[in-house]
Amino acid sequence: MPERPTDAFDRRILAALQNDGRMTNQELSEKIGLSPSPCLRRLKQLEADGVIFRYVALVDPSAVGLPVTAFIRVRLDRQDDRHLAQFEEQIASFREVMECYLMTGDADYQLRIVVDSLGAFENFLRQKLTKIEGVSQVTTSFSLRPVVYRTELPIPA
């Protein structure tokens, strides 16, 4: 498990990089009020501890031809370890799946997928999702538009 950020400087580093992961160490050090060498040491430690586990570019799905977002609730006919592991392994292999959560409540899993059309969604549903052994119920809601979309965690100051 990743180490928890130890102080205000670590939290400022995380907040700054969540907003702009491309800033240089010099820019980062100026932004958080720490000289470059200790700033870089702290950054490297946050990476080594797994607090920062990768850097990405956020891409607008519509801009790359993926305008359809669907939220899918999946119920399995069995919830034993073998069936959960089998479902999770297979669902992780589908590129359309952006997020998958094991849930409490009415559904066992909640998925967020992106596709280029309703036809592609139907194909995903019929050729992939419902072919996984043990899937007994699928309920889908489609996103009309995002209202809030955050990637920055609300790290306490």
Q: Mean of residue pLDDT? A: 95
Shape: elongated
Which regions are unreliable across 5 or more consecutive residues at pLDDT < 50? none
User: Using only CA atoms, what is the Rg?
Assistant: 20 Å
Strand order of the largest sheet: 2-3-1-4
First and last CA, distance: 22 Å
Order of helices and strands: HHHEHEEHE
Report the biggest beta sheet as strand number plus sense, adding barrel if it closes.
4 strands, antiparallel
Instruction: Based on the coordinates given, report the CATH architecture of the largest domain.
Output: 2-Layer Sandwich
- Percent of sequence in beta strands: 15-25%
Q: What's the count of strands?
A: 4
Query: What structural class do the secondary elements suggest?
Result: alpha+beta
CATH topology of the largest domain: Alpha-Beta Plaits
Domains counted in the coordinates: how many?
Answer: 2
- The CATH class name of the largest domain reads Alpha Beta
- Number of helices, where a helix is a run of at least 4 consecutive DSSP H or I residues: 5
In helices, the fraction of residues equals 25-40%
Fourth CATH level, the homologous superfamily of the largest domain: Lrp/AsnC effector binding domain/regulation of amino acid metabolism (RAM) domain
